[in-house]
Amino acid sequence: MLITYLRSSSLSNYDFCEQQYYLNYTLGYERSAGIKAEKGSILHKVMECLALLKLDFQSHDNPQLEIEEVACGKLSIPRESLMSISVAEGILNKVFEYYSGKSIYGYTKKDFKDIAGWMYTVLSYGKGVFDPRNRKVQDVEKRFDITVDKAWAKYIYDGVEGQLAIKGTIDFITKIDNNTIEIIDWKTGKRYDWAAGEEKTYEKLCKDQQLMLYYWAAKKLYPEVENIIVTIYFIADGGPFTIAFDAEHIKKTEENLQKAFVRIRNNNMPKMVSYTQSSFKCTKLCDYFKNAHPDSKDGTNTCKFIHNELKRIGMEATTKKYSVKGHNVSNYQCPGE
């Protein structure tokens, strides 16, 4: 299977369903995000705007805080009003109007209340300890694209050589002191591992591949920082969980990346969750089950159609024939874009 980069969501997607991974990342097919995911993106954008306002406060001695935001237009806020709840509510209103206005879903007052409730939960937790405006901001929505300089990470496709890259976006990074930063990742969904079918306990979060990958990336991005702690905040399901990783996790993360890269690269027949497609993962959680492939003459859904083509003509021919026009397996798109 073609693979030039890994990210936390692609690793999770492969564990959830190999066939869905192939359709998403190799062929470039798109699934609808779903209204729950969109609502999560709105909350993320609100937190991003609040963090960027604080960053502007830290960086400039202006009487007005200003931020250029596609989703919000230009915001101009007096310094003395920064901590006002009305500022957060104003940002929420603008972001909600923007996203709901271009969505395919019909947003309701309840949807707005859900997002507002998440925002109030974060801003009020522990007397505002997770409010970005109360933090020293290091980075906001920090993107990373790090080449793995290891012999095992080399790939060759159609005569083109390259090295595996690790890509992703970290929601929020704050500076605790000169030797310590904290990564904060906002989650609006359930504290649940859908691939394993079990709750994410604290013990499991200490081995979570996304959090370990963030730690690994942060060590590359900020080599001068001695201590990096990682907090994942399940806003609607359990609150914040903070994990302190160490050098052993760097080694373990790279071992996990190597195993995943080799496993995906050598996979020429990705497994379906169930060939009969009777699993709820197919019927409830996958667009490729629900929608017929456009080349199917008998209405066979996208998942099974591509699976049958893989068996009929093989991985290389299927990839060349059915990849989305213009899709590049090396392209990375930020969550919520």
Question: What would your notes on this structure say?
Answer:
There is one protein chain. The protein is α+β, with helices and mostly antiparallel strands and 337 residues long. The chain has a domain at 35-130. 42% of the residues lie in helices and 21% in strands. It is built from 12 helices and 12 strands. The protein has helices at residues 8-16, 18-26, 35-59, 85-102, 109-124, 202-205, 209-221, 247-265, 280-283, 287-290, 302-313, 315-322, and strands spanning 5-6, 64-69, 73-78, 137-147, 154-157, 160-163, 165-177, 180-187, 192-193, 198-199, 227-234, 239-244. Strands 1, 4, 7, 8, 11 and 12 form a 6-stranded mixed beta sheet that branches. The chain has a two-stranded antiparallel sheet with strand order 2-3. Strands 5-6 form a two-stranded antiparallel ribbon. β7 (165-177) and β8 form a beta hairpin. α1 packs across α2. It is globular and about 65 Å long. The model has no long low-confidence stretch (mean pLDDT 90).
